[in-house]
């Protein structure tokens, strides 16, 4: 298909158009037995007209088509240590470090050192756990905000909010970022004891089932897994409250092997 | 663009012919799926570099005991590295459908995995997310739907900051979205639209491409026009999508492809296209078309048609909106460079992707149908002859020529003398009734507004050509009318 050479330069030229030629229609045009009428055409979603293009799109999604650019290089760097407070993790790729940093050091509560996945959840936590005014105000008005981005509902109690999360937003009943505030121990700032943190090692994260916080609540017994034996049995007694460690995750249950 | 990450594990020692054959099979399957309105594709994000580091050998199928052991180690292991290794082994095993099946039926397995997903150990979190991603990609509904308990967390993590992790979450969500309406009925109340609207402000290109993918999956759903698109249009997503489609040095091809398809699904659902026009959609898309045409001339890159296609469709469908009918102002597309760009793309399609020619010509029809400006541009930029070269491709060429001719004598003056009439003699001789019918319409307009052309028609044995169709039911009335006009000139 031969294109006029001036076309390419027109493309990079200034916007605009030549003065349109005068339109002058004769009523006989398109009159019976003829029927032509200039009109724009629209095609709906599922029209077969789109079949070819749609198939090409899906071939691309399924990676059958040729890729266009190369994958970015993931360079390995000399090992380095995270500079976050009390953190001693070592990394050799920037991507791993980035994720670690964002998970553990980015949205950290300065009162209790818990880390949160987003600014929104951190703000909510600080408000509900560390703001004494919040407690007072919440007796008079609905202060517990829904955790779902975009939902502006507020509630009288944490429980009401949880019910809302479950019923309206189909959240799991044990959503890990909606822990009830502990009754004692968290109003006072917790000492961050560096040495203790390291001695404890990093959070032996216990996942699945119970998600109780340390310090004041007794943990519910773990659901037994099929065919598994417990390797240890104690929780930290509720009267002892360790320095929570430099970087606490959202799950702060500590489990320790019982040394005999 | 979608970086060179592998899809499935590539078969070793694959011959080019095998690849082509596989592609043909895939294509046939996709066509069939589309006709049954079951066109669904999932994306698998697997890191090549990671595979290499881990030894690159094909992962083996894991049994129940092995899975339990890995889970136990990942969850309760004392040494960090040990826990990570266990989860990595699990993840590699989950590349196998058999392992996936065994895994999901194991009691507590998903619960444990979700727990690891929310662990404070970043690398465990990442590996757990990779495990979920493998599951999400499965063709078995039971396997993909087993991931449902994780969705509230995946959505929560979209507000985070770790771009790799967010990207992984987005692709996983994108895979789950297409799984079934039941899945979407969970994701929508969980706030997927606001979560995406917040996440789209990320500066990371990989995140944006993944988000575009996930959103396109959501918009493609059967129930989207009623259940999904209204809330998408009610969010800030449309403005962000148009922002990301602005041409310029910051335009990323991979990101643009995804969001162009998003826009196409929104527009062709015809929910509220006026809103998109209000936000400058026509102008953005027009400029984008220019950009693509420019790119097409510069590189031999395969893949530009993946962007050209949805852009053409969006423009074409938007032009049919009533908001565009009113002349003048920002709602109008009046830049003749758009026509130039379109022809450059038509030439590109002719060489690389002929199946897209009808779509390009459809846009040309919609540009010229009600616009004296664009019809004039066709003439002033000498595009009639190139257009005629596309006659064998589609009847829409004739329709476009009619669009020009019906505007009156000033236009037909430029159509004859010229190559049009000889071409018309060719199409009039066609055995295709549709083609002949369109040609007759064009001929009537030409005779009406350019009577001098009649003589030339007769000299080129036009009457004999017309006679061929005298008995054809659909054509005879028009044939007779033209014969009469020609003889009574």
TrEMBL record, chain A:
Top-level taxon in the UniProt lineage: Eukaryota
Segments forming a coiled coil: none
Residues in C2H2-type domain copies: 82-105, 109-130
Protein name, entry field: Zinc finger protein 511 isoform X1
Native organism: Zalophus californianus
Automatic annotation (TrEMBL), chain B:
Entry-linked InterPro entries: ARM-like, ARM-type_fold, Armadillo
Keyword field contains Lipid metabolism: no
SMART domains, per database record: ARM
Keyword line: Membrane, Transmembrane
Cross-referenced SUPFAM superfamilies: ARM repeat
Keyword Ribosomal protein: no
Protein name: Transmembrane and coiled-coil domain-containing protein 6 isoform X2
Gene name as annotated: TMCO6
